[in-house]
Amino acid sequence: MVDGLTIVQEGRVLCATIDRGGENLMSMAMCETLSDLLSTPPPGCHVLHLRAEGPAFCLGRDRGGADVDVLRHQAETLVALNRALAHGQLVTVAEVAGDAAGFGVGLAALSDVCVAGASARFWFPEIELGLAPTVVLAWLPGLVGRREAFRLTATGMRVDGAEAARLGLVTRVAPDDALAAEVQGEIDALLARPYETHLEIRAFLRDTADLDRATVDRMAVDRLVLASRRLASRG
């Protein structure tokens, strides 16, 4: 569909493979294609399986240009993909074999499920350019907390898969030689459950992320009542 990104549909699974050389940098066209797939997937699809070919998962995205309009378009394209990962119509499963840096960490961390190989490393290199990665900072504190978000982006330190799992950047770690099988197990477990219910779970987690507990409790009651009435009407 676009250079550097191969999309293959296998039943209810869309497999998106990043394949753009050693660093597997995301181009703006690749980001736009993924956003479109997540927002308007082919009928009957349930899961997007995101993986990569080569030694790295994804070491960031294309940079370039000094024109304000170009830079704004690039930033808005990145934000749009981040939002599509959260608001899209597919459950996302990332398979991280190899390193992830910058925007590549976001692709992994913002997926619903992320399994990383034991040898994978994660880091934010923007500090080396003297750049505050504000697109990253828009979501990172929600996963790892403010202090860890500052430490990771302010130092550019690299963390291994086990530390990434402890911080919440990935779901879990698997041995490198068992990674593909472990990811397939996660996908199979998801496909065994109702797609519509998965969308409801994702929506509730998303809609309540920044709300106070009392409001969340009220929303939980309301949505459980509605869901229970739907189940009863089917009987």
| Total DSSP E strands | 10
Q: Superfamily at the CATH H level of the largest domain?
A: 2-enoyl-CoA Hydratase, Chain A, domain 1
Compute the average pLDDT.
95
Number of helices: 10
Name of the level-1 CATH class of the largest domain = Alpha Beta
Which runs of at least 5 residues are low in confidence (pLDDT < 50)?
none
- Beta-sheet strand percentage? 15-25%
Remind me, CATH topology of the largest domain? Answer: 2-enoyl-CoA Hydratase, Chain A, domain 1
- At CATH level 2, the architecture of the largest domain is Alpha-Beta Complex
User: Span between N and C termini?
Assistant: 43 Å
Radius of gyration: 18 Å
Helix content: 40-55%
Structural class: alpha/beta
Number of domains: 2
Oligomeric state of the chains in view: single chain
Give the strand order of the largest sheet, numbering strands 1, 2, ... along the chain: 1-2-3-5-7-10
The biggest beta sheet, please? 6 strands, mixed
Task: Describe the 3D structure.
- There is one protein chain.
- The protein is of the alpha/beta class.
- It folds into 2 domains: 5-191, 2-enoyl-CoA Hydratase, Chain A, domain 1 (Alpha-Beta Complex), CATH 3.90.226; 195-234.
- Helices cover 48% and strands 18% of the residues.
- The chain is built from 10 helices and 10 strands.
- The chain has helices at residues 28-39, 68-87, 103-109, 134-137, 140-144, 146-155, 161-167, 179-191, 195-207, 213-234; strands at 5-10, 13-18, 47-52, 56-58, 91-96, 99-101, 113-117, 121-123, 159-160, 172-174.
- The strands form 2 sheets. The chain has a 6-stranded mixed β-sheet, with helices on both faces. A 4-stranded mixed β-sheet has the order 4-6-8-9.
- Helix 1 (28-39) runs parallel beside helix 2.
- The longest helix is centred in the last third of the chain and has 22 residues, at 213-234.
- It is globular and about 60 Å long.
- It starts with a strand and ends with a helix.
